[in-house]
Structure formats: structure tokens, C-alpha cells
Specification:
single chain, 224 residues, alpha/beta, Spore Coat Polysaccharide Biosynthesis Protein SpsA, Chain A, 6-stranded mixed beta sheet, two-stranded antiparallel ribbon, 7 helices
């Protein structure tokens, strides 16, 4: 299954191109589009004409990771959940990352320990079920875009993360990338080695603008 959170704004969301790229390389996969409280729902008309596309019209306010929880609620028995953005184009098949039981990031990054305010956000997302590292450099999952396997999502749900790990604004959305990195690391998942593009996005940030990645093309847009 592919999951696409969509905050549709004409000219800024590439939902049509995103869906068509998935259909090109994975024509049989179910695609769940989770609307992120869009004011303009005209894009539903297009989606309703595409096979194997399901619209989750639940006005998701919790950014990318919120879409994962809502899609899992609808389809808890999928083998994999490919969580991407509506501004990501899939350039080639991802089959070799879908068939095993590993969870993969698309890109990762590393950074210095979070400040007090951001550490508090991490604590709110993850406690009490996980011990959050303090004053420690972090590896994050870029954009919380990842290929999750059922077992890890099921584990997170069982620990009630779908009710605590819920970013509500841009800063919290950025911290959700760090939180996912912490969660996967604690679970023993090496998302740096198990990375689709095998790249640190901070080192290779220019590839965002020159279509320099092998499997995905990302368009940077500014939205609320």
C-alpha cells in the first residue's frame, strides 16, 4: 500500500503526478490518499476515476505521520505501508524494498542534540513507552517518508503512539522526523543502512533541486 497525505492547493500539490508515478511502477498497489484538511477538494474528482485509489476524507491535521495512522486504521493487515508526500514522484520500481520485512527510510539526516523546547516535543511524542535520548545527536528520517512493514506499525499502535505521536504545526512536523529516527533506532532498525537512496539529505540537499535521486523526485513547495 502507498499512503499519500495531501494538502491540496492548486499549483503546489502534485497529487496527480504522484499518483500516476505510482500507477506506472506499481499498478496493482492500493493507494490511500489522506486529505490534510484541504479547503479545495476538487482533486477528489480526479482520484475517483483512478483504479485502486481510496480517498480518506478525515481532515487529517497531523501532517505526514498522521496519514500513516489513519491509513493503518482503515487497512491494518497490509504487508507494507509506503508513506510519501504528494510532491514526491516515484521514478522507478521499489519492489526490492517491499518484499522483505525491513523498514526503510527514503533519505536520512544527522544533527546536533535538540534544544530544550524541541526535546520537550520529542518527549511528548514518545514517552512513556520509550526512553528518549537526552543531549544526544540524532539521526532523523527525512520527511517521515519511509517504507514501513506491518510489524513495526502494529508495534507502534500497540504502544498508543497513534494518540501521542501527532505533530500539530510545522515545528512539530520537523521534530516528527527526529522522533521517527529515535523510534526506529530503539527498535533496532538501521534506517541509515536501510535507506532507499543511500544518502544523507543534508549532504546531498542539492539533489532536491536537480532531480539527483535514483528512486524519487521531490518538489519543494511552501504550504501551511
Amino acid at each position: 500500500m502507498f499512503i499519500i497525505p495531501c494538502k491540496y492547493i492548486e499549483g503546489k500539490s502534485l497529487i496527480r503526478e504522484c499518483v500516476e508515478s505510482i500507477k506506472t511502477h506499481h499498478p496493482e498497489e492500493l493507494i490511500v490518499v489522506v486529505d490534510s484538511n484541504s479547503a479545495d477538494l476538487s482533486y477528489f474528482e480526479y482520484l475517483n476515476q483512478v483504479s485502486n485509489v481510496v480517498i480518506c476524507d478525515k481532515k487529517n491535521p497531523n501532517y505526514i505521520i498522521g496519514a500513516l495512522w489513519k491509513a493503518y486504521e482503515m487497512y491494518p493487515n497490509e504487508h507494507h505501508y509506503v508513506l510519501i508526500h504528494d510532491t514526491i514522484i516515484i521514478k522507478k520500481p521499489l519492489d526490492k524494498f517491499l518484499q522483505d520485512e525491513m523498514t526503510y527510510s527514503f533519505l536520512y539526516f544527522d544533527e546536533h542534540p535538540p534544544n530544550i523546547e524541541n526535546q520537550a516535543i520529542l518527549d511528548r511524542f514518545i514517552l512513556p513507552n520509550y526512553i528518549v535520548p537526552q543531549n544526544t545527536p540524532l539521526n532523523g528520517v527525512w520527511g517521515t517518508a519511509a517504507i514501513f512493514k506491518n510489524s513495526i506499525v502494529k508495534k507502534f499502535i500497540s504502544l498508543n503512539l497513534h494518540n501521542s505521536y501527532l505533530p500539530n504545526n510545522k515545528i512539530e512536523c520537523q521534530m516528527s522526523e527526529r522522533a521517527l529516527g529515535v523510534l526506529l533506532a530503539i527498535e533496532g532498525i538501521d534506517f541509515v543502512t536501510n535507506c532507499v537512496e543511500q544518502k544523507n539529505c543534508l549532504v546531498h540537499w542539492g539533489n532536491m533541486f536537480d532531480d539527483g535521486f535514483e528512486y524519487i523526485k521531490k518538489t519543494i513547495t511552501i504550504r501551511d
